[in-house]
DNA sequence: CAAAATTTGTGCGTATGTATA
DNA sequence: GTATACATACGCACAAATTTT
């Protein structure tokens, strides 16, 4: 080892990670107690606790008060937390961070288009159909539908055989919907347009029309991008 | 408030975040000292330190020993660290995590294709040309070229007017190149193919040929995906 | 160059809150 | 309800790194 006695912080973090790998622990498995980690790693309680804090922040560990420490779910929650803070800290004159997030969301959906169409053409789509119907009904009452919106994109991503894609879609959905209200971007007026866009995406996908699906995705993100344009001209067309 | 005296951990984290927002601090700005945070937040030094650890893990804070604490760069480093650990912890029988990462990289590049072609057609591309030439030269000597590879994708993303896209591309490049060696995925035999694919991407972009660019992106990721296929059949075509 | 001041890093003891048996 | 095990919080003392005097 390069550092036996010193540099406890970083060394302890990697030591705990190595321990997880060496014991072949999986998400949800129990970790040794703090006291046992102190013994096995040869560092103080403070160092162990601070290292555990670091790993909890990354969702590599999970601590349940009074119960114990467990291997975390390795989710993208750290990405969401960091990007949300970035969004509110660096709004920019043109809400640039929020714009970039929306553009990434559109890019993710567009890059998934071929697979979505392939998977959904002629398939069972009751869950997605339900989401769209609820959205349209709520839009008619001038009510927002965040739950249905998120569920729609999640159900879509779940059918692709790539869990990471689904988690990225969900993560940027979370970032978007958390940052937008804090910056005063509401966009309540386009509820009908957005609900209809979801329906168009679904219709295009089940009928196997790739280009129509791509167009529907564009229409889905058009309202929010126009709201951002009203505040400041887009840096790109 | 539900927790006035207790729950110092989470409360202190948000208190520090609120402090950054209230003072309008930007990345790189100095933070109050630990002692001052103890006074202002009314919690113990241990709590402050653990909260700071959490924020350092998210790159919201940065600590320099003996100097002080500063606002962090809010980068995607936490995403990289988490995904790398996920990649080595959950390799799966089919190296599924690595496959998903590569597929996301391809998706990002494909979704950027229209913009790249628009921006590069007839533009100055000396830096990108240099990268490709160096790659080809190194490939001829059967040498890997990770630096040139990363630089190519970064230079590409930098021209798009969306910093987040560039950081995502760089982050998943880092994840890919960190995880692949640990799982024994080398792919040294396809150095020529990959170098040529970069050249083809550049040629297609400057000539404004969107479809040729898309094809070159596919060719770029084809070698690594074939290597993954050899170990286990792909879950999707 | 050297000493002092400042700031973060580490270790340890103790008291308290919380979940489980 | 009680006991036990565990995590959480606090405070102090000292070590290490950096900047300033």
From TrEMBL, chains A, B:
Domain annotation HTH gntR-type: ranges: 6-74
GO MF, one example: DNA binding
Listed transmembrane segments: none
Family annotation (Pfam families): FCD, GntR
Superkingdom of origin: Bacteria
Coiled-coil stretches: none
UniProtKB keywords: DNA-binding, Transcription, Transcription regulation
SMART domains associated with the record: FCD (SM00895), HTH_GNTR (SM00345)
PROSITE patterns with a match to the protein in the record: HTH_GNTR (PS50949)
PANTHER family: TRANSCRIPTIONAL REGULATOR, GNTR FAMILY, UXU OPERON TRANSCRIPTIONAL REGULATOR
Name of the protein described by the UniProt record: FadR family transcriptional regulator
Lineage, uppermost ranks: Bacteria, Bacillati, Actinomycetota, Actinomycetes, Propionibacteriales
């Amino acid at each position: 080892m390069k550092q036996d006695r010193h540099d406890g912080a970083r060394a302890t973090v990697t030591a705990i990670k190595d321990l997880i790998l060496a014991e072949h622990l999986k998400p949800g498995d129990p970790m040794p107690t703090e006291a046992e980690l102190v013994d096995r790693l040869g560092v103080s309680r403070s160092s162990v606790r601070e290292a555990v804090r670091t790993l909890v922040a990354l969702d590599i560990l999970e601590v349940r008060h009074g119960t114990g420490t467990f291997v975390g779910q390795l989710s993208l929650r750290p990405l969401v937390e960091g990007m949300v803070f970035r969004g509110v800290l660096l709004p920019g004159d043109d809400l640039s961070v929020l714009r970039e997030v929306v553009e990434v969301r559109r890019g993710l959906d567009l890059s998934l288009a071929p697979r979505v169409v392939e998977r959904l053409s002629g398939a069972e789509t009751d869950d997605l159909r339900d989401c769209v119907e609820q959205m349209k009904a709520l839009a008619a009452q001038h009510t927002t539908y965040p739950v249905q919106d998120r569920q729609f994109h999640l159900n879509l991503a779940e059918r692709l055989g790539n869990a990471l894609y689904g988690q990225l879609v969900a993560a940027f959905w979370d970032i978007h919907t958390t940052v937008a209200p804090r910056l005063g971007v509401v966009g309540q007026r386009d509820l009908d347009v957005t609900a209809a866009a979801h329906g168009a995406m679904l219709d295009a996908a089940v009928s196997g029309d790739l280009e129509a699906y791509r167009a529907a995705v564009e229409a889905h993100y058009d309202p929010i991008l126009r709201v951002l344009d009203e505040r400041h001209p887009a840096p790109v067309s």
